[in-house]
Design a protein that fits this description.
The structure is a homodimer of 644-residue chains.
Chain A: E1 8-9, E2 15-17, H1 22-43, H2 66-83, H3 87-102, H4 112-117, H5 131-149, H6 153-168, H7 185-196, H8 199-211, H9 218-229, H10 260-277, H11 283-296, H12 328-345, H13 348-362, E3 380-381, H14 383-386, H15 406-415, E4 422-424, E5 428-431, E6 437-443, E7 446-454, E8 461-468, E9 472-479, E10 487-491, E11 494-496, E12 500-501, E13 504-511, E14 515-521, E15 525-530, E16 540-545, E17 548-553, H16 554-557, E18 564-566, E19 573-577, E20 584-594, E21 607-608, E22 614-623, E23 636-637, E24 639-642
Parallel strand pairs in A: 5-9, 18-24
Antiparallel strand pairs in A: 1-4, 2-6, 3-23, 4-5, 6-7, 7-8, 8-14, 9-13, 10-11, 10-14, 12-13, 15-16, 16-17, 16-24, 17-22, 17-23, 18-20, 19-20, 20-22
Chain lengths: 644, 644
């Protein structure tokens, strides 16, 4: 482990949540989403693809992305099995694993599309054809399933594949000096290294990281070779290597560019390699990239990637709301990256963004019933504008997608969400996210139970009861979120004065079983302003309370939400509504809108120069993460006009 | 002439403007724009195309649109020659006419592309290949040149072509029952009818109008025939006939849809046929279409067509500002249509829109120096967002375009702008637009001079001196614009009380030479609100004074214009600045913006929940029609945040 690692995450296997926010979502994920996604994979041919029985002319031609969907589903299922054993599910995974294993070629290669559809094109188009990306997701699934069940079958398959990849790629004679157009293999190889202890997988991950963006550009030669063969197949026309974050060596990169999901996975891989190799040269670019995305290119929901056209970043402060892409996978990737940076640095700024993305831009990606998914997570919905939109930018969640990366991505995140709650080190434990449940900490060489009791995110009071095996001295670092301006802390009923430094209030003492810490985070309604350069949000604010960003929905507030003018934050009152949207605190206030009577009727002029009257209206805001769960395909709005 | 015709426009040949607003623009149009456009046509091969010398492999392959550009340039040059004879220009036109004439085929057919490039495809794709559109523009040029010079050469050529078209198209045996995908031929044939008195041209125009959108759809059979031959060439894939306004018979159309320019030209043709044939069944759809576009689909600038994707209409109240297409040609077409409706009805609502489009969305299409043109006229410009945009949506005016419809369109409009000033009938004269100059009215069987003295649009005072040949009784109808809430009227110094009915104040008397009418239109600064369903403009207003819509430019107000919050209209003061942008009244006020200091620095957070401070700033608004004439490629904004 590199010298500057501050923390290790407490794995989700040692975090059992029984809170009203995450526990029901985990149950739905387990009981509905996982079976639903398996069924979708089966129905669409993704499972059977591994039988390698497809022949030209048959339906369900294995697509170049498909293997990755199955890999992610296996990973999600594995996480669930680890905390909630389920024989039926395990048998299902075993069956899939057998199919996957059967698809492996004698040389270790494993890819359904390039085995049965275009075998002659193996490794011919790393820029666009996603082979290493698919390999990475199968590796992640293999590691997760091994760790969940101890079963080595898939792990061994993926080791053989990784060994094959290690033979094909590298700087040795006869090897390809390439890397994947869609990053993922890097972080997956680090997981494989951690699971097996085989250093060569870490070295291979480092090779892919180091090689990226070097001269001469691999993709140029590749594109030329493709052209000679007449094999250009997908959209990338060459030239803009920034799409793949391959425009310069990763250590020289300081701006997040291109495809958002690819960027996130790359940065995760960089952080992993930095951590495992101790390569400190990867940290400065990671810090610069972090500052860039969070200060110039991130939505208030933790969504990233402004444009559907490149599924990625555009230019600084360009954060359109109605056409925001904010792919669910990109926010998932941001959580992954933030989590890694948090372990490396212990700084609250990473936890703040992790929480922002998790509670808002990620969770909005799945319906409360666990059956439907958003690919894009816009910050405003206007039904007429969405008519005829592509499935990945539809204004309603859908059951599945042709390119189905998002549904299993959110499933694996929810199944393992416990790992984001706490971290531990030799002499400290940190609580990053507050959620009711039991955590088993390993700190200062001992086990220590931590029971959290809280209604977070609906309430900022958290009671923590510690039960170390025996009295143990360590620092308990409690995150004071960036949104929290005031907090109170007590130990065993006695107020403790602790400043929040780097986002954490720290209490160092010899903890005894039964010690109780109480933290109360003030959780007023806030109104976020965006930087004036975010031209779309000028004159507007986003309602926020605790980690949750709120929105107005048509169901509560009628049409033409943009015409509503809200009062200052202090006028809003949170009201918990048990029967609404699974139980949420809504925010209510009296507001204004232009008198609909002044503008009623089809013969009304489009423009008028006499100021129209205003009427008082009640507004109700709901958490963004649950929008679109009532009447889908209606208006929604995050950035609200504020009385000035 | 149909029974319900109220007015005839006073032709531009009887209107000599010497005002500070239009006269300089006409001079620049004559002295700079016309020669520049000729040179562009020549340079790009549009002129030489008529030599029919192009062979495969040669540069400058005649494009299917090209003939129309030359036709419009001839028309613009003709209007200029009529009022400002210019031997050099006339010789130039004569040379072009000779080339055009030489390109006519023995059977009368005349189209450069389908003579030399794809002769086998003549009339094969009316939906997309623009032959009748090109024919129409050459006809308009021919009529204008004949009327300007008395020279018949081009008129005769185009008559022969029209006769050929009349043989090819129609309901007789062996004829094609088609119509053009890009309307234009209809209104052109009416002009040809008026110039020649040949009824068959009017009948052919009526045929094209009547046939449009009938069952079975012509374009379906055409598309099938194309497919059989493998000839599909351009973008339209079949199905959406609304692109061409061919989704139903024109008399059943009540919503403006599809390509905006095509729609305008069709409605012009419908109005012309209604007027000349007395076909009253065309008027109800025209009125419905008018109500629809002006009440639901028109920008405050008179721009129309929200989307670059279809160059046309999207859905009701969908009027995005930064991505507004608002093609210059579409606003030109709206002026044409409004002008025709105004003659048919005498109602001020048509003049209001005509004025709105003319002074704003049309004029913005050309630079003050007459050398550069906008194809799209957005209502907001943000440089970073426009980077890499296509030439037709660039944030700076350009010298020319591959598809160069707009530059000669605006040139022909400016050269003939006098025709929009007044109308006349047997017993009335109407003044629609106020501009300093001399008009020769023909009213009640006599000539009457009308001298207008005014600084309009900078000032609302207009002095009108009448000089009838001899004392004559008629009604003088003076337009009271929709934007004007208060006016004062006097005749020979004596106040006259006249209500504005239907947009006009009417004075009936026996006019004598030297009678003087004074009209003072109150011209305060106004703030237009858009209907709340225009979601982009909620919380925002557009500054307007007289007929001019104003905008903020970066040159006067710095960056991030959307963050400026303006005070009510009454706080704005007009200030005439002689040396600015050719002499304009700017609007000035004290306003607010968020303190840049609160947000300075690259390390500034993207979001903050403590309200940022506001600072006072001075704002200066300039007329929209002159934006982008100083430092091009900078920010501009029409809809401004208003303090609420």
């Amino acid at each position: 482990m590199a010298a500057d690692c501050v923390f290790s995450a407490v794995p989700f296997t040692r975090v059992a949540l029984d809170d009203p926010f995450w526990a029901p979502r985990q149950a739905v994920n387990r009981e509905v989403t996982l079976p639903t996604e398996y069924e979708q994979c089966r129905k669409t041919g993704r499972i059977d693809a591994f039988k390698l029985a497809w022949k030209p002319g048959m339906p369900n031609e294995p697509h170049i992305f498909w293997d990755s969907d199955v890999g992610k589903w296996i990973e999600a299922a594995a996480y669930s099995l680890k905390t909630h054993p389920d024989r039926k599910l395990e048998r299902l995974v075993d069956d899939v694993v057998a199919l996957v294993a059967g698809a492996q070629q004698p040389d270790g290669y494993l890819n359904t599309h390039f085995t049965v559809v275009e075998p002659e094109k193996r490794w011919a188009n790393l820029a666009e054809w996603h082979e290493l990306y698919c390999a990475g997701h199968l590796m992640e699934g293999a590691v997760a399933y091994f760790e969940a069940t101890g079963k080595r079958a898939l792990l061994d398959v993926m080791r053989r594949y990784a060994d094959h990849i290690g033979q094909v790629f590298g700087r040795g004679p006869g090897q390809k000096r390439g890397y994947c157009g869609h990053e993922e293999i890097e972080l997956a190889l680090v997981k494989l290294y951690r699971a097996t202890g085989e250093r060569r997988y870490l070295d291979l991950a480092k090779y892919f990281i180091d090689e990226r963006g070097t001269e001469p550009p691999y993709f140029v030669a590749e594109a030329e070779a493709l052209k000679r063969k007449g094999w250009r197949k997908y959209g990338w026309g060459g030239g803009e290597y920034s799409v793949f974050q391959a425009h310069k060596p990763v250590r020289e990169q300081d701006e997040v560019v291109g495809h958002a999901v690819r960027a996130m996975y790359l940065y995760c891989g960089m952080a992993d390699v930095a951590r495992e190799t101790g390569d400190a040269t990867l940290l400065p670019p990671l810090r610069k990239l972090w500052a860039h995305v969070t200060r110039k290119r991130m939505y208030v929901t933790g969504g990233i990637g402004s444009s559907r056209h490149n599924e990625g970043f555009t230019f600084d402060y360009d954060l359109p709301n109605e056409t925001a892409y904010c792919e669910t996978c990109a926010s998932v990737g941001l959580v992954f990256w933030a989590h890694r940076m948090l372990q490396l640095t212990g700084r609250g700024e990473y936890a703040d963004v992790m929480e922002r993305a998790l509670y808002n831009g990620v969770l909005s990606g799945v319906s409360l019933d666990g059956r439907r998914f958003f690919y894009a997570n816009p910050l405003a919905a206007y039904p007429a504008a969405g008519k005829g939109a592509a499935e990945n930018v539809a204004a309603e969640r859908r059951e599945w997608f042709g390119c189905a990366c998002c549904p299993p991505n959110i499933a694996r995140l929810i199944a393992s969400v416990g790992q984001y709650v706490c971290s531990e080190s030799d002499d400290a434990a940190a609580v990053h996210l507050y959620a009711q449940g039991d955590v088993e900490l390993h700190v200062a060489g001992r086990r220590a139970g931590l029971r959290m009791t809280t209604r977070y995110p609906w309430d900022g009071a958290v009671r923590m009861r510690l039960t170390p095996e025996r009295p143990t001295a360590f620092t308990l670092a409690l995150r004071i979120p960036g949104w929290c301006a005031k907090f109170a802390l007590s130990v065993n009923g006695k107020a403790v004065r602790a400043a929040a430094r780097g986002g954490y209030a720290r209490i160092r003492r010899r903890w005894q079983a039964g010690d109780t810490v109480k933290l109360v985070l003030a959780m007023p309604v806030l109104q976020a302003e965006a930087n004036p350069r975010v031209r779309m949000d000028c004159g507007r604010v986003a309602l926020q309370r605790g980690p949750l960003v709120y929105c107005l929905e048509q169901a509560d507030n009628g049409r033409e939400l943009r015409d509503i003018t809200i009062p200052p934050a202090s006028a809003f009152k949170p009201v918990f509504r048990k029967n609404l949207l699974g139980g949420v605190a809504v925010l209510r206030a009296r507001a204004w809108r232009r008198s609909p009577r002044d503008w009623a009727g089809d013969d009304q002029a489009l423009y008028r120069t006499t100021p129209s009257a205003r009427v008082r209206v009640s507004v109700t805001a709901v958490p963004y993460c649950v929008w679109g769960n009532r009447a889908p395909g209606r208006e929604m709005l995050v950035w609200l006009s504020r009385r000035q």
